[in-house]
Write a structure and sequence with these properties.
heterodimer, A: 113 residues, mainly beta, 5-stranded mixed beta sheet, 4-stranded antiparallel beta sheet, globular, B: 113 residues, 7-stranded mixed beta sheet
Chain lengths: 113, 113
């Protein structure tokens, strides 16, 4: 799986939007961009994924740069329950068997009340 | 009902012992995985099974042996435990081997003393 770069940590106030960046300059044309998050003492949880167009779901939005070398996960209104480590991962869907080396350091999001 | 359940949640054992971790999913998924999260929080795949067939076997010591009696279960047996095996082990499942959305269990924290 291609490499991604994320800030180690970010801080947000409750009820405010949060923009979590991810750089993936070596992304290939067939790589999808995935975001997972891991709450304390839990397993990772799927958040969102996309290829080229921006995506929205009930949890978040994903904004993908036109050249696809970067993306941003947007939490529209951060809550205390959103405090977690957020992972940006690339994967070619034709790759069988699952994400391999994944879930690097990620971005630890702190949410202040 | 928990979608992906692992037992035990905590496991403390002495070096040299043999232990097993069990995983069950009730989602009807075809593919299951074992991941290891080390002290630096990097999550790496160990094994992947699709419909009871082993499809990924990363560079893992042969002291680790997965077993899938049916597609809803994937167990991990570890022989001759070593200090370096201490980690959190996560089981996950996905609809099929190409799926993007994984469901993870809550993890088994293994401590070898």
């Amino acid at each position: 799986d291609a490499k991604t770069t994320q800030p180690n940590s970010m801080e947000s106030n409750e009820e405010e939007p949060v923009h979590l960046p991810c750089n993936h300059s070596t992304i290939s044309g067939t790589d999808y961009i995935h975001w997972y998050r891991q709450l304390p003492s839990q397993g990772p949880e799927y958040v969102i994924h996309g290829l080229t167009s921006n995506v929205n779901n009930r949890m978040a939005s994903l904004a993908i740069a036109e050249d696809r070398k970067s993306s941003t996960l947007i939490l529209h209104r951060a809550t205390l329950r959103d405090a977690a480590v957020y992972y940006c991962i690339l994967r070619d869907p034709s790759t069988t068997g699952g994400f391999k080396t994944i879930f690097g350091a990620g971005t630890r999001l702190f949410v202040k009340a | 009902d928990t979608a992906v359940s692992q037992t035990p949640k905590y496991l403390v054992t002495q070096m040299g012992n043999d232990k097993s971790i069990k995983c069950e999913q009730n989602l009807g998924h075809d593919t299951m995985y074992w991941y290891k999260q080390d002290s630096k929080k990097f999550l790496k795949i160990m094994f992947s099974y699709n419909n009871k067939e082993l499809i990924i076997n990363e560079t893992v010591p042969n002291r680790f042996s997965p077993k899938s009696p049916d597609k809803a279960h994937l167990n991990l047996h570890i022989n001759s435990l070593e200090l370096g095996d201490s980690a959190v082990y996560f089981c996950a499942s996905s609809q099929d081997r190409y799926s993007y959305g994984y469901t993870f269990g809550s993890g088994t924290r293994l401590t070898v003393v």
